[in-house]
Design brief:
It contains 41 helices and 13 strands. With about 1000 residues, the protein is an alpha/beta fold.
């Protein structure tokens, strides 16, 4: 017998010996129970009245912040029932105009708007607390007739554009938070217009509907497909009642729906009224969707699952490919969420990408974090989540925006007590993750996908059968009056409308409740009848939970049996034993594989390019890599150093581009990228090199004081600082001579580089035609001339020398990695030439600047010089047989990057004068191709001699495919002095080649 049973038996024995005490215990419990019953009934009456009041409002919502209307979707060319409001910040908590704005988009999945700002500790509250201007995107209860999902997607893009327009001084593009259903809709808009969106935060947003073990995913198949959705919309006279969606949510947890939620209010009637009434204000705010909206969602998402494999097209034929998104994507999910479990929130990653290199090749940054137990709505409204995860997302969003391409896992933990860098109770850490870790959570099942494909096929058949037979009769018999009657009789609506103040007994119950509140008699907590009540409640929960588990198991068995049968599998085109995937993987097409190879090949040419900034970033990445994870203290330490040394204004977009580029270089080349640091520093003064090295050392020391560095971190720090010191000493000994261009990179840092690195680091590409040591003597004078032209001589002399000297530079691959922009320039650089052409949509980062004319005394870039194709490898090499990009990349830091890096920022491949372009799989966008080569190709340079075309077509940005929004640049005339359109300035590389052809 347990101690609890022994205590209970002792208490009952004492009561049997004392009947008076037993009577008092019974009477006190029943008095308390009766009073709680009256209070509970009055609370439900208030909920019913609240429901009636909300239905009479024009814009019902549960937003807990004052706001003003900024933009209405009703005024758009394709009107929708959405609107955007500005959240008015409290007087004691003003926003910072230099910080990027936040847009919180609420889900339209049956409930009304406002859940993102339901409490002070919510997503909106966290953004305001961090000083960000904040906007909220909500909606009206009734849709605009004819409104479609695509119309809503365009409205979201318009709202984001408006927010950016209202904050031109902000450092970064708007952050967009998509809750639940709004998450996938925001992702669709960002995939079509990636240049508009900043970081995306997806909170409980389902994107892969066949993933996981969620019982809701079986509903479409068990009901025979989407024909029932179509019939429900027809019975609603062209509108789908959102109450049916809420009913599906409640069916997932019958214990909470049928017992726990009501019992919790009954048991805590004295304290639970305010919370319960406020929640029911949101839960009972049902809205409507158009029939075409709901049918699109069910057919293409819930049953078809087409979004995560880039199978959706817009009405004008634009493919919606989530790989087009260029901003960081933060995915927040919870294992306690039974509506959007982590598998459905993260499954799109395994659906789209083959491996980690595939993620990096698309320049996509994905950060995910999971919660252990919070429920679906708790992700949006829980006070503990709002004061922890959402607040950290808001305060560290600029740091997240700087993360290089790849997959990361974020964790939020309590800040150590002895920490001095961070004045915050919580600390966010980020570590490198991979596709394998995502797969462990998602657990992809190809066999299960085949069964869902069979269910999707049967849904199409049943829907077509319904449309051709029953639908005409249903529409003929449906009127607005019958639709309103069915709306009123919906079980979810009846639960609110059946008990309001209009009920005959409501006034009496209300009067009793007021009297009880003044004469409340609560029972003791140790009352055995109260304990028996709690035990009964727990037993009811267990019974209903067991029912739920058995029901869900039956659903799964039934679904697998029916749709795993040979007949239905054959309907989906799968024969027994067929190993073909149910859905084509978008990353496995030949065009995309060729695109990935081009991206990897382009990284080969970036090993020896850069200066102080690139060298510092490589060193910091190499050190941070040894820690396996970093936290926000690195950022705070860097900000302190920035204030101390007054580095001035830093362009966040340019810094982001430089960080992402060097991270790709380090990931592609490995330790060779670190060994190339001295070569990057070969054109800088010793004092500049040592200043940057001291900053790196101080940054590392600041972190080591808070968290002891492992041995690997110490070794990496010593190696990086040694490379900087070696480069500084060599500059002191040899000055700014051309020796750095003649010697391999490894020889430049002979004191710290290994003998094996000395054979490999000079090469720009991995397939060099000859080893680096093979250097004919005849090539040396040419290199010295190039070095002088970019050294300490005057600008005019440099330009003249670069324009006339026959230096042979390596031809760069035509495509840069998606992170490549003109940003990797030291902060102290002087005024630089404008970018050769605006950054394309494939980068989606920022506009580089206005077009400027290249003056005659501008510093000519070594990469712009004439090229000589190698007979063995097909690549342009120097006379020595080794690529010359090492010498070319050592230009003065005041100049920008090579024409290949500034003009060929698109991901398309520049072809010879035929104008053809490689088309990556699924990369188009609405206002123009993500990779411009898809829709627009360059004109053939018919007037240019054939030899000139073959030598220059690959590196000349004028001959590449251009952005659809701007006309293609005309072909160069035979004289080599043709002008380019005003919106497409000629690159310095093109000008340099023109002068060479003239000479």
């Amino acid at each position: 017998m347990t101690d609890k049973s022994r205590d209970d038996s002792t208490a009952w024995s004492s009561w049997m010996m004392n009947p008076w005490n037993l009577g008092q215990t019974v009477s006190s419990y029943f008095v308390d129970a009766w009073q709680r019953t009256i209070l509970y009934a009055d609370i439900e009456r208030q909920v019913g009245d609240q429901y009636q009041t909300q239905r009479k409002l024009d814009v019902p919502n549960v937003l807990n912040f004052p706001a003003e209307l900024v933009m209405s979707g009703l005024t758009l060319p394709r009107p929708v029932n959405y609107l955007m409001v500005r959240i008015l910040a409290p007087d004691d908590q003003p926003t910072d105009p230099s910080k990027r704005p936040f847009l919180v988009v609420d889900p339209r999945a049956g409930h009304g708007p406002g859940i993102g700002g339901f409490k002070s500790d919510s997503e909106i509250g966290a953004a305001l607390q961090a000083g960000h201007p904040c906007y909220f995107v909500g909606f009206l209860p009734d849709p605009v007739p004819g409104q479609t999902v695509e119309d809503v997607m365009r409205a979201h893009a318009a709202f984001v554009s408006k927010a950016a327009e209202l904050h031109p001084e902000s450092q970064g593009k708007p952050v967009v938070i998509g809750n639940c259903q709004a998450g996938w809709q925001v992702m669709m808009a960002a995939a079509v217009w990636p240049e508009l969106f900043g970081p995306l935060i997806l909170a409980g947003a389902p994107l892969s509907y066949w993933a996981g073990r969620n019982p809701m995913r079986y509903a479409g198949g068990l009901l025979g497909g989407s024909w029932l959705t179509a019939m429900t919309s027809d019975l609603g006279n062209g509108r789908f009642d959102g109450a049916w969606l809420v009913k599906n949510f409640e069916n997932l947890d019958p214990a909470n729906t049928l017992w726990t939620k009501q019992y919790n209010v009954y048991a805590k009637a004295d304290t639970e009224a305010e919370r319960y009434i406020g929640f029911e204000k949101y839960w009972g705010g049902y809205v409507f969707l158009n029939d075409v909206e709901m049918q699109y969602i069910v057919d293409n998402l819930f049953i078809g699952n087409k979004l995560s494999t880039a199978q959706l097209l817009t009405s004008d034929g634009i493919r919606i490919d989530l790989r087009n998104i260029r901003s960081p994507i933060v995915v927040f999910s919870s294992f306690g969420d039974n509506i959007t479990p982590p598998a459905q929130a993260l499954g799109w990653i395994t659906d789209l990408y083959l491996d980690d290199d595939d993620v990096r090749s698309h320049d996509q940054t994905i950060v995910f974090t999971t919660h252990d137990r919070i429920g679906h709505l708790g992700i949006f409204v829980s006070g503990s989540v709002g004061s922890k995860e959402h607040r950290k997302f808001a305060s560290t969003i600029d740091q997240i925006d700087l993360l290089p391409a790849g997959i990361y896992r974020a964790t939020v933990e309590e800040t150590p007590d002895d920490d001095t860098l961070l004045n915050d109770p919580y600390l966010m850490s980020v570590r490198q993750s991979n596709l394998a870790e995502i797969a462990e959570i998602v657990q992809p099942d190809p066999e299960s996908d085949r069964r869902f494909a069979a269910a999707a096929r049967l849904s199409e058949i049943n829907l077509a059968f319904y449309k051709s037979t029953l639908q005409p009769w249903v529409k003929a018999l449906t009127t607005p009056y019958t639709a309103a009657l069915l709306e009123t009789l919906h079980p979810m609506r009846l639960s609110y409308e059946s008990w309001t103040s209009t009920h005959p007994w409501a006034a009496t119950i209300h009067q009793w409740a007021e009297n009880i509140s003044q004469q409340r008699q609560t029972v003791d907590k140790d009352n055995l009848f109260l304990e028996a009540q709690e035990n009964f409640s727990q037993a009811m929960e267990r019974i209903l939970n067991n029912y739920r588990d058995r029901r869900d198991s039956i659903y799964q068995i039934w679904f697998d049996t029916v749709y795993g049968s040979p007949l239905l599998m054959a309907l989906a085109g799968h024969a027994p034993g067929d190993s073909a995937p149910a859905r084509p993987h978008p990353g496995s097409s030949p065009e995309h594989l060729a695109f990935v190879r081009q991206q990897m090949h382009r990284l080969d040419g970036l090993l020896n390019e850069g200066g102080l900034l690139e060298a510092a970033l490589r060193g910091l990445f190499h050190i941070a890599k040894q820690r396996h994870s970093v936290d926000e203290r690195y950022h705070h330490a860097a900000m302190r150093l920035r204030e101390q040394y007054d580095t001035g204004h830093v362009d966040i977009e340019k810094m982001r581009a430089a960080i992402r580029e060097q991270a790709l270089v380090l990931a592609h080349h490995g330790h060779k990228a670190v060994e190339a640091i001295p070569h990057l520093l070969s054109k800088h003064k010793p004092e500049e090199i040592r200043l940057v090295a001291s900053l790196i050392k101080k940054l590392i020391s600041a972190i080591d004081e808070q968290d002891a560095a492992p041995e690997a971190v110490v070794k990496a720090s010593e190696e990086v600082l040694g490379l900087f010191e070696a480069a500084a000493k060599q500059q002191e000994q040899g000055g700014r001579s051309s020796s750095a261009d003649d010697k391999p990179v490894a020889e430049t840092a002979s004191k710290v580089a290994t003998k094996a690195a000395a054979k490999t680091t000079p090469a720009v590409t991995r397939k060099s035609a000859a080893p680096a040591s093979a250097k004919p003597r005849t090539a040396q004078p040419v290199r010295k001339t190039a070095a002088k032209s970019t050294g300490t001589s005057s600008t005019g002399t440099s330009a003249k020398t670069a324009a006339t000297a026959p230096v042979k530079a390596a031809v760069k691959p035509a495509t840069k990695p998606l992170a490549q922009t003109t940003a990797g320039i030291p902060a102290h650089a002087a005024a630089k030439p404008a970018a050769d052409k605006p950054v394309s949509r494939s980068v989606g980062e920022t506009k580089v600047g206005a077009a400027t004319k290249v003056k005659s005394n501008a510093v000519a870039k070594p990469q712009a010089k004439s090229v000589e194709p190698s007979k063995e490898t097909g690549k342009a090499t120097s006379a020595a047989g080794t690529p010359v990009s090492g010498a070319a990349s050592s230009a003065a830091p005041a100049t920008s990057k090579s024409p290949a890096s500034t003009s060929a920022t698109t991901s398309s491949v520049a072809r010879p004068a035929t104008g053809s372009a490689t088309k990556p799989a699924a990369t188009s966008s609405a206002s123009g191709s993500l990779f411009p080569a898809e829709q627009t190709t360059s004109k053939p340079a018919a007037s240019v001699p054939a030899k000139a075309v073959s030598a220059d077509a690959k590196s000349d940005p004028v001959s590449t495919a251009t952005k659809p929004a701007v006309k293609s640049a005309p072909a160069l005339p035979a004289s080599g002095q043709g002008k380019v359109a005003a919106t497409k300035p000629a690159s310095t590389g093109a000008a340099s080649r023109t002068r060479q052809r003239k000479s």
